[in-house]
Write a structure and sequence with these properties.
The protein is 26% helix and 24% strand. By secondary structure, it is α+β, with helices and mostly antiparallel strands. α4 links the parallel β7 and β8 (162-167). The termini are close together. The model has no long low-confidence stretch (mean pLDDT 97).
């Protein structure tokens, strides 16, 4: 089976936007569609609580006509049009979607950050992990989120194997970003966030990219939009992951980034598994 995960940074902008960036985003959607994955996980949809309007739904269906859709958006008391996730899964798959709350600090559970698909042989979880924020003002809440999320995945794993993916908003090791020395106090590379990810892996999960590629350097999934040369210079971070239960690691065939061309921000990631 083949899976793709991508932080799209606004589904509406991608589907109906008129900017040059929207054109770049749609080019990435074309690339994803060509991959013909079984499940596609989308983060940061930024849709309203009511979901897509008719125009958006039609545009999405034009890209992915052979898929059913599950989605969740932020709702009160969370900010409107914030975060949000979506899963597209091939028609005919036996899938039951759920939208778990994990006991995270308020209002994280209301921000539309998690979808879990229950399939006959495994769970598929997609996540958009909260950012620690400017000045690390949300770091404490982020640490508690990491604990609750690790507990949640470990509980799923007791029933059947788990494939989990998304924007985890952390570069785990120094080889996962281009400039570690100057970023130890930056959101996404604090000791606390890295320890949280280490703890998650220690609950019985494998970072599939590192499992396949070892200590390869220079492989990133995100480049800052605000720095015009970040992608040209490959000054990136690897903060998007496919994780699998330890019991599935020997079934992994591929785990890699998908070429997103000149578009900065997140690139899609791909997992192929027997």
């Amino acid at each position: 089976m083949k899976f793709i995960s991508w932080n799209i940074d606004s589904l509406n902008a991608a589907l109906t936007g008129k900017s040059a960036r929207a054109d770049l985003t749609r080019a990435v959607l074309d690339t994803i569609a060509e991959e013909d994955a079984d499940i596609i996980a989308i983060q940061e949809t930024k849709l309203p609580a009511a979901g897509m309007n008719k125009k958006q739904a039609e545009a999405l269906a034009a890209y992915f006509p052979a898929y059913d859709v599950a989605w969740t958006s932020s709702h009160e008391p969370a900010r409107k049009g914030y975060a949000g996730t979506m899963a597209l899964y091939r028609k005919g798959l036996a899938v039951t979607p759920t939208y778990p709350a994990i006991g995270a600090p308020e209002p994280m559970d209301e921000e539309g950050r998690l979808i879990t698909l229950d399939l006959p042989d495994f769970y598929f979880n997609l996540v958009y992990t909260p950012n620690a924020g400017d000045g690390l003002k949300r770091l404490g809440e982020r640490q508690l989120w990491d604990e609750r999320y690790a507990d949640y995945l470990a509980e799923l794993d007791k029933a059947k194997p788990v494939i989990a993916c998304g924007d985890y908003n952390v570069a785990h090791e120094e080889i996962d970003l281009a400039n570690p020395a100057t970023n130890h106090m930056s959101a996404g590379f604090t000791d606390e966030e890295r320890a949280g990810f280490t703890h998650l892996l220690g609950r019985g999960f494998v970072d599939t990219f590192r499992y396949v590629h070892g200590d390869e350097t220079g492989a990133y999934s995100w480049w800052a939009q605000r720095v015009k040369t970040s992608k040209i210079n490959n000054a990136g971070w690897r903060i998007d992951y496919f994780l699998v239960s330890d019991s599935l690691k020997d079934r992994v065939v591929r785990s890699e980034m998908v070429d997103s061309g000149p578009r900065q921000d997140h690139a899609p990631i791909l997992l192929e598994i027997k």
